[in-house]
Write a structure and sequence with these properties.
The strands form seven sheets. Strands 1, 2, 3, 6, 7, 8, 9, 12 and 13 form a nine-stranded mixed beta sheet that branches. It contains seven helices and 36 strands. 42% of the residues are buried. It has 505 residues and is mainly beta.
């Protein structure tokens, strides 16, 4: 279907385009003050917020030409650059903001200017650069709900066509530098009341955090589509970051705080609300999280791919079932517990401050505890838990073990660590001869069907009550917890541990 272009050619009848498009525009605009002699002091005829509000009200995919009639008065706006292409997260565009008008308690307006220059815009238009824009002959375009100024409507993508490089200096006139734009300080739930008022504006969102599934992953959204930021007072917003951004490989933080960026949309807001950051300094999230319950899967993402970190955890809580405890027959290393939750993920707890047993349900406040991972691979371990942080519900756990083969275990560990610290059941298991003590080999006859079965038997690890019992002969169904050991050489050994001989059927 051909895209519809609505062209508004204005005649010279004593009104500028601003007055025609928005009847509450001031006839005499208050000139911005400056002490820099490099300012050409062009006569500003209108404010950006008129074009922002008009563009947002236009039909998606439509464009209106500004001052096209012969003899039309010059239509000139000004703004301070708030975003450019320096880090690669904005491409062929700059965003400007002025202090015109006041509506809903917000001063100023913003606008995206489409420019057909693929790089280096930041050298001419650095953040803080004042710039005048001569609008006559350009177009106001509604791009998926977002007002933009450009050379027309791009038929290939429905966006605003960029002003070609030889004409950029004709339409955009740099003035003083540097200047400061103070972001609008707000919360997501307040923006949702009148989202169009914030379009193309630099905002700081308070009391926000990345959604649990988006913690400690790359800012590059190419693989996940987008990131979600949650507001503690309500509301969510999408964040999109380019794969070409200089910060694409940096990881998102786990805490709570502020997010600053340009408020845009890819669909009528607030449904399509989107925050575009300039670089990672726009994200300041080091406080404790709100809405603190997270899954163990999200918890593990905080350390995923990092080498030997000891991350001090923000205010998060986990809830799960104890699937192995050193207090049950000393079946695992001293002071060690394994907890699994409904996400199917598990975590190792290392503490002497609490007493947990197989089948207990536990709710733990992890604020200030350490999240550790060794050698860039599992195990993931929580340390520093105090008695006051744990609520224990004896025998209330309902988790069932996963039925799996040893080949599946070996294959899964070869590509991911999702089985670490979880309870599994293996059929058709045969044991090597001898006692349970130490590291033994079990097999289920599969193509990669052997695994180490570990039973503590030392002064440091403790000794399982059944360590010196003889392993059974014949074929059995066996339940136990999976863990792993990473040697100093970096080699990881997968381990399987039963809780008691009753786990062998």
């Amino acid at each position: 279907m051909k895209k519809y272009i609505q062209i508004l050619a204005l005649t010279l009848t004593g009104f500028t385009i601003c007055a025609l498009l928005f009847n509450s525009c001031k006839k005499k605009y208050d000139q911005p003050t400056t002490t820099n002699n490099n300012d050409p002091n062009l006569h500003v005829t209108c404010g950006l917020w008129y074009f922002d509000s008009t563009g947002a009200a236009m039909r998606v995919g439509s464009a209106r030409q500004i001052g096209a009639a012969p003899g039309a008065l010059d239509t000139i706006v000004y703004g301070i650059v708030t975003a450019n292409d320096k880090t690669g997260n904005f491409y062929k565009e700059i965003v400007i903001q002025d202090d015109s008008g006041n509506a809903d308690g917000i001063t100023g307006g913003g606008m995206t200017i489409a420019l057909a220059q693929s790089s280096g815009l930041f050298t001419t238009f650095p953040i803080g650069q004042k710039v005048y824009v001569k609008l006559n002959g350009l177009y106001l375009v509604n791009v998926n709900g977002l007002p933009e100024i450009g050379a027309g409507l791009d038929p290939t993508n429905g966006g605003a066509a960029g002003i070609i490089q030889p004409l950029i200096s004709t339409y955009l006139i740099p003035a003083t530098y540097p200047n400061t734009v103070t972001p609008i300080s707000t919360t997501l739930d307040r923006i949702d009341v009148n989202p169009n008022r914030y379009l193309n504006m630099l905002v700081t969102l308070n009391e926000v955090q990345f959604a649990p599934a988006n913690i400690n992953i790359c800012y590059d959204t190419n693989s996940v589509g987008s990131l979600t930021i949650e507001g503690c007072t309500g509301g969510t917003i999408t964040m999109y970051n380019s794969s070409y951004a200089s910060f694409a490989a940096a990881h998102t933080p786990a805490g709570n705080g502020t997010a600053t960026g340009i408020y845009t949309t890819y669909k009528a807001p607030p449904v399509g609300a989107q925050l575009l950051i300039r670089d990672t300094s726009d994200i300041r999230m080091s406080a404790s999280r709100c809405g603190a319950d997270i899954t163990i899967d999200s918890l593990r993402r905080m350390a995923m791919g990092l080498n030997n970190p000891n991350i001090l955890l923000p205010g998060v809580h986990i809830r799960g079932t104890v699937v192995a405890s050193y207090l049950d027959s000393n079946c695992v290393i001293n002071n060690t517990y394994y907890v699994e939750d409904a996400s199917g993920q598990g975590i190792e707890l290392y503490t002497s401050a609490i007493s947990l047993y197989d089948g207990d349900s536990v709710y733990i406040d992890l604020t200030g505890d350490g999240l550790n991972v060794y050698g860039g691979a599992p195990p993931y371990e929580i340390t520093g838990i105090t008695k006051a942080q744990a609520q224990i519900f004896p025998g209330a756990g309902t988790l069932q073990p996963k039925l799996i083969t040893i080949t599946e275990i070996n294959t899964t560990y070869g590509s991911t660590d999702t089985l670490e610290s979880t309870l599994v059941t293996i059929k058709n298991v045969t044991f090597s001869k001898g006692t349970f003590a130490g590291s033994q080999t079990i097999s289920d006859g599969g193509p990669a069907g052997t695994i180490v079965m570990y039973t503590p038997n030392s002064a440091t690890a403790g000794t399982a009550t059944f360590a010196n019992e003889q392993m059974p002969s014949g074929t059995h169904t066996v339940t136990g917890v999976l863990s792993s050991y990473t040697a100093k050489s970096g080699a990881t050994t997968i381990q399987f541990s039963i809780r008691t001989p009753a786990d062998i059927k």
